[in-house]
Each structure stands twice: as C-alpha cells, then as structure tokens.
Amino acid sequence: MTQASSKHSILAKIRAGLGKKLDKDLSGNSHTELVYKDYTHKKKQEAEDLVPIFIEEALKVSAKVKTIGDKKEIPKSIEDIFKENGYRRFAIWNSQTLESLMVKEFLLEKGFRAVSNNKEELIEADVGITEVDFAIADTGTLVLLTDSTKPRSVSLIPHSHIAVVESRKMVANVFELFTLLSDLFSSSKPSCLTFITGPSRTADIELTLTIGAHGPKNLFVLIY
b or e along 50-75 (b: 16 or more beta carbons within 10 Å of the residue's beta carbon)? Predict the structure, then answer.
C-alpha cells in the first residue's frame, strides 16, 4: 500500500465513523481543496456580527472580556485592570496602536514600571500587553503574528496577558483566517503564529487541570 492510498484508507475510515462520505481521492493537494470547500460553504459574517460570538466563546474559556466604545479609553481601561489586580510591572509591544495611544507613557506617568522585552526581565513582569492581529470568533481565539518588535514572549512569560483587539480583525473561523493569511502573505508566510484560547491550561496524566503553569494565569481582552 502506498503512502497516499494508506492515507486515503485511514481518512475514509474516520469519515465513515463520523457518518460522512469521502468526496474524492486525497492524493496531491486534495486535502487543501477539501478544507477550502468546507470554508466556502460557511456564511461570511460582518466583523461586528462576530464580536458577540467571540465574547461568548472567550468567556467559556475563562478570558475576561471588555468592549470599549472609543479606543482612546484603552489606556484608562488597562490602568483599571492594573489597579484591580495589584499589577505594578509590565511589558508591552512596540506596535502601532499601542504606540499611537501612548499606552506605555500613560502607565509610566501613573507610577507603573515598564520592563524590557528580553526574557530575563520579562519574568519579573506582572502582565504583558499586546495587540492582536486576528481573533477567531467561533473558538474565542486570539492570533498573534510575532516578530522582533512584537515578541511572543510578552504574551507568554508574564503572569497575566492583556490583549487589545480591533473588532474589524474578527474572522469567523480558522478557515477564513488562513484564507486571509494566504492573501496577505502570498510570497512569504510569517515565521510564527501564536494562537491563544483563554489562560494557560495544563493537565497531568490524571487529568488534574492547572491554570497558569506554563503561561499566563489571567487573560484580559479589550475589544474596540
């Protein structure tokens, strides 16, 4: 049995078990074709319609979500989170929206302390502040495209994570996400995609769930 026919046989059994028919041979690029076929049958919803869906799913996975009418209120909303949780030290992305709103400068003026984005200092941060490149509504997932100015460590190492989400960056599902990524990065793909669904969760062999053992214990999402 060839690798392609073996793959076909395994997937056929899975689909049969799920009560689904196998439309075509899964050799070559047909798996990708099936994925896009699945996506094109989904209704494309406007971004504003996706926000309540995202919020519902994000709350299910223990994220704390707040909607903001005016993005100018973001610095004050972040300060409120700091005060409510006793945060003093923060790390922050050098990204367009956060810089345009002067979030870092605002927090420094309020007496909070910024740490650098290197891993040695990040471990001392109470919270990391990032933007979000996309948000997947049907799973309440945040998607970050990271680089040297937007390191993923800011969303992973501190005890808590504050994510700032622009509502127009909502996508319905992962199929729409990868369609958009293909359009945006037709010649070269980003080196790292980070998917975040709620606070960090870890379970041992006995299925004992621990929150925050391998990542942030708290996730705050600010949507504008």
Answer: bbebbbebbeeeebbbeebeeeeebb
pLDDT in tens, 202-221: 555 555 555 545 568 899 99
Domain 45-223 has CATH 3.40.50.10420: yes
216: closest CA among 157, 162, 166? 157
Structural Rg of the chain based on CA atoms: 20
Q: Residue ranges of the domains in the chain? A: 1-41, 45-223
Listed as ranges, residues in the chain with pLDDT below 50 are: 20-45, 212
pTM of the model: 0.75
Nearest to 194 by CA among 126, 135, 124, 123: 135
Which of these, 78, 88, 222, 105, lies nearest to 158 by C-alpha position?
88
pLDDT digits (tens, 9 = 90+) for 54-93: 999 999 999 999 999 999 999 999 999 999 999 999 999 9
